[in-house]
Model the fold of this input.
Amino acid sequence: MSTISNPQLDGMPRMAFALVSIALVSFSLYTAMFGVFPDMIQRGVHLSAVIALVYIRFFGFSAPGAGPLGLGWSHAKFLVLGVVGVGVAGYQFLFYDDVTSRYGSIASYEMPIAILAIILLLDATRRTIGWSMVGLAVFFLIYAHFGRQFPGLLAHRGYDVVRILEQVYLGADGIYGTPLGVSATFVIIIVVLGALLEKTGASGVLMDIAVAMTRKSRGGPAKAAVVGSSLMGMISGTAVANVLTTGTISIPLMRRAGYRPAVAGAVEAVASTGGQLMPPIMGAAAFLMADIMEVPYLEITKAALLPALLFYIAVFCSVHLEALKSGLQPLDDIDVPNVGQSLRNSGHVLLAIPVFIGALISGYSVMYSSLAGILCVLGLSVLRRSSRMSPRQLMAAAVSASEAILPVALATATAGIIIGVVTLTGMGLKFSSFIISISGNNLVVALVLTMASSLILGMGLPTAAAYILVATLTAPALVTMGVDLMAAHMFVFYSAMLSSITPPVALAAFAAAAICREPPMRVAMISVKYGFVAFLLPYFFVLEPRLLAVGSFGEIAGVFAMAIIGIIALACVLQGYALGRLSWVMRIILAVASLSVLMPEMTFKFLGIAIILATLIAWKIGQTMKSGAA
Done:
């Protein structure tokens, strides 16, 4: 999450930001169309442009004052930092032949360049994301050098500064490693596609559809937030961006419908967080997952579909039960959008999404499929005046895409420092051994420890950055214990994603709190309640791989149908309401039964369903008898 949200630059900085954004987007589109450059060139250009954008933005917000060339001292500072940052970040592509000829060996004159590159990368990351990622990177750099001073399993022989710089700055697993490569290829193109869909009005069509679908239902605005956020996740790709896009509409509507402000913010935060796991266009972490696992992106979307549907079914049921419990009624005075008019104005642009999916299914790469979607958006947008983009709007789309890629690119580059150190010191294996040792080789305990460490490591980080860390440190432990590779990575992906709503640092909840004007921690705590089922889901698809679409169609459909029953029962338990208010005894019985339904053994599933039905029937009979006696 950017430390400066929705920056409004003026004058020269605004034009400079726009020009660099256009250059970054144009370079990315060119390489998507004609093929990527060698890694160091592709990633070096990408990172140089991103660092330039960071310092241009802060240059535009600098305080005026006396200084050289008529600039304020703050202006001069950011100008120097930006120029030096671009130079050291782009050193490897500027002197590509010389650097590659030495196979990762660093020359003495390159050491100050490498140190400056690390310092300025961390400074840009701090200004864009915050201190959490920077603190982790600094810790790992210290760990690489002072390894002998660490206790027990964490100890290693320690490395000198030269070896660390070679690994972090010149190595294939360092700053310019795979995570930054994903940002420089897959993610940037997807972000451009999302920006174009937003600028052509496609995002408004999706939200209009969501509001119209739920307007006659109790708690309709909250349900619109759930539906809209699931659809908008395909465009925004990040939890915070989703909150800031749909939340400005849904949160005020929820408050008008009778929801408490903190509840309205929490519902939006949870729904927006889930947008990252909703196929077909998931968040940046999904593309990182495909690259790290070396599987087609289509396999990731296939595995993510059923858990995503269960996630949204659970949230939808929770807000419906909250509306029933609170006695909320449909809003008669809600401004119902004219869906037909919206579809006529911009609905045709949404055809770019089926084009993207069709290209993926046909076997084309994510970059090529995204490019096909972009060309489709551009072609379709000219068909109607309402969706046609002027040069100024195209420039605005490039700026929007650049603003969205900043936290992802900087997070992945900084994560490269951590991954480089983990690879150099073997910490990944040590961390995995530590989890296995502490868990006593018990899978459930190992899963709990893995989720806890993932939530802690992911505090204050975008999901993509959090996923990189946990995929490197914790996923190998689960694979070692026999968990399927896809299930292990999906488990840590969910855990990293849920850090967006988990106190004490819950970025999505804090963004929603700013809109509903409630204390951030209160919104975060209520978000955990509404998203509690999402914390349980990963355990069940590890134990029940058919929820990740593994198996025959009949088996998957049957398990999914039973899982829906279990998820709805869990939502009733959390809200304390089903056909009416539930006592604590009934909630405990339903909780045990719903967990049984989600277990892999069919005996437990049928037993759990039987208990749920028997409990609800007994409750209904009891209520009828009470009414008759009265």
In short: The chain has a mean pLDDT of 84. The radius of gyration is 25 Å.
